[in-house]
Amino acid sequence: MQFKIQTFLITAFLFFGINQCFAQVIVSENKKVGVGQENLNAAKMSIYNNEWDYGLRVDNLTDTNNSKFSILNTTNDIGTGAKYGIHNTISQNASANKESVGILNYVNAYGSTAARGIGVNNIVRYGDGRKYGIFNTVHQSSTTNLQSYGLYNSMIPSGGDSYGVYTNINRQGSSKRAYGVYSFIRDLKTSTNQRNYGTYSRIDHEGFIDNYGGYIYMNSKGLAASGHNGKTYGLYVLVAGAGDTERIGVYSSVNSADGYAGKFVGDVHISGTLTNPSDEKLKANIKPIGGAMEIVNALQPKSYNYKKIEGQGNDSNTLRFGFLAGELKEVLPNLVHDIEGAETPIVSNEINAITSNKKEGEIGNLQEEKYKKEEDYQAINYIDIIPVLAQAIKEQQVEIENLKAQQDSELESLKNAIQILQKEVAVLKKQ
Fold it and tell me: Which of 36, 326, 418, 431 could form a disulfide with 48 if both were Cys (CB 3.0 to 4.6 A apart)?
C-alpha cells in the first residue's frame, strides 16, 4: 500500500524552483520514499528528475562554529557485502560535448586553517583488508586519442609552497613496505608504439630559482637487523623482463653544452662497463696528438687527501693520487672545468611527521627550507688524459727503438773495430 501526497510547495527542503510548483512524494508501506516517481527501487529514498539541473540540492546556511556537513553519510559494519558512502553512475551519450564529473567540488578557503583542495578527507582504519584513501578505475575507449587521468590536479598558486600531490606516511608497528607513490602499468598491446611512464614530470619555468623534476629527501636513521642490510636508497631502479629490446635503468639527457646529465657528490661504483661515444662519424677536426712526451713531462702528479667538507661526501682518510686543477690548466687547459657550487637544502630541516599533538588525519607540514651555496671549484677530465699518455708511450717507444738502433749500430762498429785490432795484433805476433 502506498500513500501519495500532493503538496503545494512554496518553501521546502526539496527546492525545485523559485515560483510555485507541485512535487509528488510517495511513502510505501515498507517505509521507502520516492520523489517524482511512483516506481520505488531498492533504495530507501529515490529521486527522479527530468526537468531541473539538480536532482538534489542542499544548502547548509547554519551559523555555527561547529563542523558543518551538507551531506553526512554513516554506513555501519553490519553485513559482508560492499559498502559505498557515495556511489555515482554517470552515463554520457556519444554526442555529448561537455565534461562528465562524478564529484565536482569548489572549496573557497578564506581562513588560515588547512583546506582540502580535493574536498575529501579520508581516514581509513581497522581491519586486515586493503585500504584505499582514493581508488580510481578509468576505462578509456580504444578509438580515442585523448588522455585519461586517474588523478588530475590543476593549481594556480599565488603564495606559499604548492604540492600537486603530497604524501605523508606515518608508519607504525610491524607494517610491511610503505610506498609514497606506487605506479603499476600493464600494457597488453604488443603492437602499440606509445611509451609508458610510471612517473612523468614536466616543468616550464622562466625564473631564477632551482627546478627539480624529481626531488628526493631521505633522513635515514635505521639500523641493520636480522635478515636486512639496513641500506638506504635515494633511488632504486630494477629493470626486468625478456626479449631483445634495449633496457635502460636511468636515462638522462641535457640539451646544453655546459650542463651535466648526471652530477654526483660522493663516490660512484660501476659493476659493468663505462663507455663514451667514440665513432668517427661523430667527430670533426681529427688530428694526431703531437708533443705528448713534452706534455707528460710537464705534468705534476700529486698524492693527497680530500679535506673534510660537509656535503661533499669525500673520504678524508683515503690517500688519493691525481693532479691539481690549477697546475693541469697550465698544461692542458681544455681538461679543466669550472664547476658552479650548487644550492643544496640544509639537511637539518626535516619533514615534520604526524605527531601526537596533531589531530588524526591532519597533514604534516614542511619546514621552511633553507639553502646553502657551495663554493665554486675546478674539476678535471681525467679520461681525456688517457690518449695523451698513450701517445706519450708511443713517442717514448720510438725514442727507445731509435736509441736501440743507434746502440746496435755503435756496437756493430765496435765489434768490427775489435776484429781489425785482433788481426793487427796477430800480424804483429808473427813478426
Answer: 36
Query: Is the backbone of residue 361 left (phi > 0), alpha (psi -120 to 50) or beta?
Result: left
- pLDDT at residue 15, as a whole number: 42
Give yes or no for a contact between 324 and 300, defined as CB atoms under 8 angstroms apart: yes
Which pTM value belongs to this model? 0.59
How do residues 182-196 score in pLDDT, each as one tens digit? 887 777 666 556 677
DSSP secondary structure code for residue 75 in this structure: -
CA angle (362, 366, 370) in 5-degree steps = 170
- Write the DSSP assignment of 81-142 as a string of letters: S---SS-------TT--S---S--------SSS---TTS------SSSS---SS-------T
Cα three-residue angle 138-139-145, rounded to 5 degrees:
105
Cell of 259: 650542463
The C-alpha cell that represents 252 in the structure block: 638522462
Decide: 320 and 303 in contact? Cβ < 8 Å.
yes
Longest CA pairwise span in the chain (Å): 163
C-beta of residue 378 within 8 angstroms of C-beta of residue 336:
yes
Task: Evaluate the CA torsion angle 427, 428, 430, 431 in order and state its sign.
Answer: positive
